[in-house]
Each structure stands twice: as C-alpha cells, then as structure tokens.
Amino acid sequence: MIILCLNCGSSSVKYRLYNWDERRTLAAGIVERIGIKDSFCEQEVAGKEHIRIPQDCQDHRQALQLAVSTMTHPRYGVIKDMSCISAVGHRVVHGGEKFAKSVIITPEIYKTFEDLSDLAPLHNPPNLMGIKAAQEFMPDIPHMAIMDTAWHQTMPEHVYTYALPYEWYTKYGVRRYGFHGTSFLYVAKRAAVLLEKNPFECNLVICHIGNGASVNAVKNGVSYDTSMGFTPLEGMMMGTRCGDHDTAIDFFIMQKENKSPQEMNSILNKKSGLLGITGKTDMRDIQDAVDRNDDMASLALEMECYRIKKYLGSYCFAVGGAHAIVFTAGIGEMSDIVREKSLQGLESLGIVFDPEKNRIAKTRNSESEISAKNSKVKIFVVPTDEERVLIEDVVHLLDGTYQIHTQFTYRFQDPEYMNTLRCLEFAEECQKKPELLGIMPLIYKKAFLKEVKKQEGLKKRIQQIPDVQKYLPGIEKELN
Ligand code: AMP
Q: CATH code at 349?
C-alpha cells in the first residue's frame, strides 16, 4: 500500500511517498514558489540522483500535478502512475476544539476546517487549498487530515483558559490550543520506550526547538500544557517569532509608529525572535557569529536558552517531576550549545547532563542519551518523525483500526522499531563519528543491533566503522 503525505504551505507543497508494506520512503520532495515566478520541484530518492525540475505552477493544483509527474517520471520516478496511491494524508495546522484525533475528510469536515480558518489565517487556508487541489486531482481515494492541535486536546480547562474576558472564549474560541502535536506525540511515545515504561506512567518535558519552537509538559502520557497558545506566536523565542512578551508593548509601538494590527502581527511573527535581535534566523549562523565574538549573536543565544530553561523549570513543576527531558527538531537535535546552556546549573534539581555525551549527540538519525549516570532525570535527544505519525494514522483510518492515541498503540512504540532509512544514514555518519554508537540508549542499541543483523548491507557498513569494537564491545562476535 502506497501513501502520499502532503504538507501544503502558502507557496510550497512538501510531499513524501511511503510504501507501507515495505515500511520505506520511496520519495521525498518539495514544490516551491507556487504562484511566484520560477517555481520548481526537488525530489530525493534513496540510491538515485537528487533531481530539480523547474516548471511554472500558478496554484496548488499545478504544483501537485508537477509533484505527481516527478514521482512518476520515467527516469527519476518511483511509481508507474497515480493509481498506485491508496490514500493521501494531509497535515492540517489547526483543528480547533473539534478534533482530538485524525479524521477522514468528508465535505462536512472540510467545511469545519474552513470555519476554523479564522483561528489560523496564516496556516489553514493553504492547507485547505492543498486538500481541495489533491481531492480534485485524486478524487477516487480517501483523503485524511492529521492536525497539529489534536494531541493537545487533553489539556485541562484551567491550563487552556486565558485570564481574559471569558466571553472571548465562548464567542470566538480564544484559548490555548498548542501546536507541533504530531511531533510531541511521536517523541512522547518514543521516550516511553527509552524509559522502558508504560507511556501513561511517564511525565516528560519535551523541547521541540526548530525554526518554530515549543515546549510540551506531558503528564501521565498526555499533553498537559504547552508553550504555544491561541496561535504559534506564544512561548519560546523562535527564528522569526517573538514568543512571550508584554502585549502592552504592541499597543505602545502601534501608537508610536502608527502601525496597523496587521502590520504589528506581521512584525511579531516574521521580524522578531532571533531575526529581530541578530538579523539572522538560522541557529548555525548565530553559533558561527558567537564564535566570532559577535555580541548580538551571544545575546540572542543566551536569550533563547534562558527561555528554554524557564519553561523546563515550570513544566517540571507542572507535571510533578519529570522522568525525562527530551530534545527534538533541528536545533534540539543538532545544537549541543543550546542544550548545554539550557541544562546548565540544574544539578541540585536532579537534572545532570554529561557534557561529553551532549557534545557528541548531533545526529538526526539516531536516538541518544545525554544524561550523566547520577542524573535522577533522564535526558534524551530523539529525532522527530511527524510523517511517521501521519502515515500510521492514514493506514489505520483506512483499515478501520484507528483510535485516539490513548486507546491505540503505534508501531513505533515497539521497542524493536527501527526507521530503516535512518539506520543506513546513521551507519554512514558513524564512519566519521563512531562515538555516536556509544551514546545510544540501551534499549535503542538492542533494536539497532537486531536491525543490523537483518540487513546485510548495513552489517557490512557497521563492520567498517573505525574502532567499532570500542563503542560496541563484542560486536564482531555478535554479528558472526
Ligand atoms: P527545523 O525547523 O526543525 O527544521 O529546524 C531548523 C533549524 O535547525 C534551523 O533554523 C537551524 O538553525 C537549526 N539547525 C539545523 N542544523 C543545525 C546544526 N548543525 N547546529 C545548530 N542548529 C542547527
């Protein structure tokens, strides 16, 4: 069974084609600059040339047409024609209070999303354009919606209600919704595997720190609080979003600089955060600038890490003590500096990271443990996989076995679950950085070795890793 995952933004369509029976990604790609000049499609296929096809796309329908013609391309393609696709899973940012789980999109459901566009004017309209175009283009197969907000529907009333006139909630739905839900779901379930605990007995604080960033307090396995709110603007300092600030500043500046609400909204969302302080949005550029003694870059880095620490502290209290702190997304997975600064000085609270393990843990292909032996709270780095959640939801909606996550076990909750593609990429990374092998959490290492025994190519690459014996003692004997 082949599933197409779509993530439609205002000027881009990201896609991934997945073969469920073989449990592997066939192709991943993106069509960019839709409705702007010079649109193009880029596609990656394991073991094939990376391709870029320039072609004008006026709208999402033409963009999908280009994506499908790339997936079915006689030379670079991976499927014969579109009839191979069994279902489409769409990422939808805002599901409001109506959806605590993924759904099959019917005309009524589509209408509900349209009504919700008011709550997410930047995100839902492009998501809906994508759904409409895909339904027109592939009318005979089911389309499903997987929402960023669904995971957070377990937040209690006293957590999601703002201290504002209550009628704003009853009239307009003003409340905390939270986002990054599919990422938090995946990471929370994986953390339970790493802790070797029932997911509903786990208290976690998950830091999803990417270009967009939010922190999630997970109590007894479900979302209890999260830093993003009514929109993705609240909470952390992000690439271009300001996060928490005194909203009186907005009115002050609107008066001083004669700005409209729309202009102010755009500044807070697109010109603030790391960009507002440094003129740069990418953490790699900021880290490089810090190395060159750039004062503003240093200030931005300190600000971002202090904000993470503040949320870590408050959420550890909110859940009554965390079993684990988990870092994920681009910065969370790759920036040892951000993790170090966010975790420093928490020893008296039982949170102790191992500086050497933290320095090593820079990979998007393997799970790592960076807590010190004497840390009461485990600290993990778990590469997120939102598409994996989307794919499993689609597959189980199709076969009728899908349930809300509190009554359902995902395959990636199996202690032996491995992402095959990531394993192969990890083996390549380890040729240069074999020390990554030494920081795998125990249960993950067992699953990884089991996968290595299954795949001859992977086994060969592992045996070629320099010093492999040092990081995986007894590996030669085990593999022979
Ligand atoms: P995401 O939104 O999850 O794709 O994360 C994107 C962010 O991850 C980018 O803004 C980068 O700043 C950050 N990132 C990616 N790789 C690294 C790295 N090696 N070191 C520091 N930050 C990184």
A: 3.30.420.40
